[in-house]
Write a structure and sequence with these properties.
It is a single chain. By secondary structure, the chain is of the alpha+beta class. The chain has five helices and nine strands; from the N terminus they run αβββαβαβββββαα. A nine-stranded mixed sheet has the order 3-2-1-4-5-9-8-7-6, with helices on both faces. Helix 2 (about 85-100) packs across helix 3 (about 125-130).
């Protein structure tokens, strides 16, 4: 699937609505992934304006969370910052980085949202549809959804709900710290997304995929 470049905010919303019809999060991936890639984008100065950006992809081996390979790309983004339309700013640079990998990941983990999005097509959903690689999102804050009380122990969770629909989980990755917000993107379901998030976050609040991709994107931006 090609990455359409919208000319206006309205066009971008229409593209998202069309893509949302293709999203599938009703079943887990077939088998357990081994090569799991974190993706992230760093922005120069004010992220609300056009400017230099860097995208990073770091591929980990799920068996021991060791780094298999990483790739970065730098460039600029002309699409403005609009809440809910982040994918149109970030996917082009992420695709460039992904194309520089020497392996194909089994799974992508995004610092953002999947279906926990007003149009059910956040960054993780959009990127999975463009690449054909299953993806889910792990966000630091909730965007459009609400949730009940999350148990304090590691692995505790509560449904993320928007408009009466379950769109993810508020998940406690470490006992006594703030939860993260997990949502399936495409070609994976919510339960498996949460399970894999816990495997990817053995010590810290955020998955190692996110932590390493964040570091790599910042290093690329400052190189």
């Amino acid at each position: 699937m090609n990455m359409a470049t919208p000319r206006t905010e309205r066009e971008a919303i229409e593209i998202q609505l069309e893509l949302a019809r293709l999203v599938r999060v009703d079943r887990p991936m077939a088998g357990t992934p081994r090569l799991v890639a974190g993706v992230d984008v760093a922005y120069e100065s004010d992220s609300s304006r056009a400017g230099r950006i860097a995208g990073a992809v770091v591929v980990l081996d799920l068996t021991d969370l060791s780094v298999v390979v990483r790739a970065t790309a730098t460039g600029s983004s002309d699409f403005p910052y609009v809440p809910g339309l982040l994918a149109f700013r970030e996917i082009p640079i992420l695709l460039t980085a992904l194309n520089r990998l020497t392996v194909r990941p089994d799974l992508l983990v995004c610092d953002g949202y999947g279906i926990a999005h007003p149009r059910r097509c956040g960054l993780a959903s959009h990127l999975a549809l463009v690449t054909g690689i299953p993806a889910f999102g792990v966000a630091k804050t909730s965007f459009v959804s609400t949730h009940g009380e999350v148990p304090q122990e590691r692995g505790g969770w509560a449904d993320l709900v928007d408009g009466g629909e379950v769109v993810g989980r508020a998940l406690r990755t470490q006992t006594g710290i703030k939860p993260v917000f997990v949502s399936a993107g495409h070609l994976i379901d919510i339960a498996q997304s949460a399970e894999l998030t816990l495997r990817l976050a053995p010590r810290d609040r955020l998955p190692e995929t996110t932590r390493m991709a964040d570091r790599a994107s910042r290093e690329a931006l400052n190189a």
